[in-house]
Amino acid sequence: MKHNVLKYLEDIRLSILDIVAPMEFEILLNNEIENGELKKEINFLLIKKRSGEELDTGDHISVIDSFVEDKLNYYKEYLEGYNFKNSPGFDELNKIFRTSLKEAWD
User: Fold this and answer.
1) pTM higher than 0.70 for the full model?
2) Is residue 6, in this structure, part of any structural domain at all?
3) In the structure, how many helices (H) and strands (E) does the chain have?
4) Which structural domain, as residue segments, surrounds residue 88?
5) How far is the CA of 23 from the CAs of 14, 29, 30, 41, in angstroms?
6) What angle (nearest 5°) sits at the alpha carbon of residue 83, between those of residues 77 and 86?
7) Do residues 38 and 63 make contact, with C-beta atoms less than 8 angstroms apart?
8) Cα–Cα distance, 25 to 40 (Å, whole number)
9) pLDDT tops 70 at residue 22
């Protein structure tokens, strides 16, 4: 039974990889980031990382800091307006998950 479950999970993983091709970071960066200065700073960090330079903590990069802060604030505000009372709880989600596994195993 354990082997069947592992095989099933592996099959799902392979199916997902067939459907959703991995996206290179540069493609994502170029399609999603319009701010030229932000893009330049991110590319600079990528060049340093690819060169094998070990990146530890460093100076703050204000344009990246601002971008991250703006995104965090955006999602915080977005979630403040979300009505979580209508969302299923963990018990309900666990029940759905177990039912799905049972159907897959049978």
Assistant:
1) no
2) no
3) 5, 0
4) 59-106
5) 16, 10, 12, 20
6) 155
7) yes
8) 14
9) no
